[in-house]
Every structure is written in structure tokens, then in C-alpha cells.
Amino acid sequence: MSLKTAIVRQFGKPTSLVGKLAGHIMARRSSNRLRNQRTVELMNLQPDSRVLEIGCGPGLALALCAETVSEGRIIGLDHSPVMIEQARKRLEASGSESSVDLVFGGVDRLKEWPGAFDRVYSLNLIQFIADKTDFFQRVFATLDQGGICLTTYQPRLDNEDPNGASAMADKVTRIMKEAGFKQVVRIGIVAGPSPALCVIGQKEVRR
User: Where are the transmembrane segments (predicted)?
Assistant: First the structure.
């Protein structure tokens, strides 16, 4: 196994020294930073937004969220202690550690927050989720009425299908609709031979 392949596999759950290296790559790679920035921009955050990032990694997007959300709530969830620690250090360096709660755990933790958020998002997490139907049902339950879910995906290995982002977006769109999301759309956020796409769906307000 090449070092590059070993590092990419670590993106699912970074551990040990290789996991730390994967986290540093996530934080420094320009395409990753752009993917985080544009996903956060799509959320149209407000000072009182209630935000959850699933698989927060080294905390790039959380720090961006904290620039706007001052009266609401921001939670970063990750099942890797390595990523939780890197996110904590990044937030401390930016002076926003008091604005973000970092929570260790996997998607099973979502049951603790029924209707708690108006924005739930993930970045390059969905390819590691085995049961995507269960995942989006859990996300749907954490959202308040009118809340939105954003799922961003960009293929990372050179030998991945160049149409992989589109295929993933199609799959996510279908599953989100089955989970109850409405107004599901996909938006291109990074162009090029390995594009990044974001699928956005809303939990409708009950009449």
C-alpha cells in the first residue's frame, strides 16, 4: 500500500501518527480549504444559528462558522480523538474555542439532539457511511422545522471515477428525499476534473 493510499484511508477515522498527518493535510490542502469555505457560505449563517458538523475533522469549517455565530450554538462531532484534539487547537488559535462545543462520538450521538439544529452539514464524510439511509434519517430528526442539511463530497484519489461526485450526489439526493427532505438540490462548489458537489435539503415547516 502506498503512503498516499494509507493517508486517504485515514480520512475515515484518523488514528496514530498517520492520522495526524491526514489531519494536517486536510487543514492545509487548498482544495479542502475551498470546499470548507464554500460549504459554510451556502449555509447563510446568522448570529443565532444552531449548527452541527458531523465529522468535523481538524475544525476548519467550525472556525469559519464561529466568525458569524455569536448567539447560537455550534457543535463539532467526530469519532476520532486525533481530530477532536486538532480541532480544539485550531479553535484555540483562532480565539473561538468558547463558541464551539467539540463532542467525541459517531452518528449514534445524533439521537441526543432531537430538533436541536437549523443547519447540519458534513464534508467528505458520506463516502465512509455504510448505511446512508439510517444516516439521513438521523440527521432529519436532529433538524428543527425549516432546517437544512448540507452534504459535500469531492473524490480525493487520482484513480477515482471522474464522475464520482455526480454519482454520489445522485445517490444522496434520492436517499434524502426518501428520508423526508424537500427542495433537495445539488450545487457545484469546486470545478475541475475532480469537482466538489454539495447536496442541500430542507425539513419543511409543518402547517
Answer: none
